[in-house]
Amino acid sequence: MRRTVRHKDHPLSMRLPDADIAIIDRAATLRGRSRTDFVREAAVRAAEDVLMETAPIRMSAAGFKAFMAAVAGPAAPVPEMRKLFQRTAPWEADDTKKRS
Predict the structure, then answer these.
(1) Who contacts 97 (Cβ-Cβ below 8 Å, separation ≥6)?
(2) Is 79 helix (H, G, I), strand (E, B) or coil?
(3) What whole-number distance in Å separates Cα of residue 89 and Cα of residue 66?
(4) Beta-carbon count within 10 A of 38 CB
């Protein structure tokens, strides 16, 4: 008896300029992926981002009240952030000692 095989994969075809193919191929090679895998992963990631942007956030009335209180309340300093902002950025560091 023959079994019906259901295909889980669906073909997707695109027409792209040579410049787009070149950059996709270069990036895929750097990641050690095939063009198909690279494009599929990038497209799925972009689709997930769009869906997450539009997904409703549901919470109870008490949860919403607590959220609004936290957002409306005074900001509290974060010691780690203060320390980070006091550091000199690597591109602003004085590297004259290295040249001597």
Answers:
(1) none
(2) helix
(3) 37
(4) 18
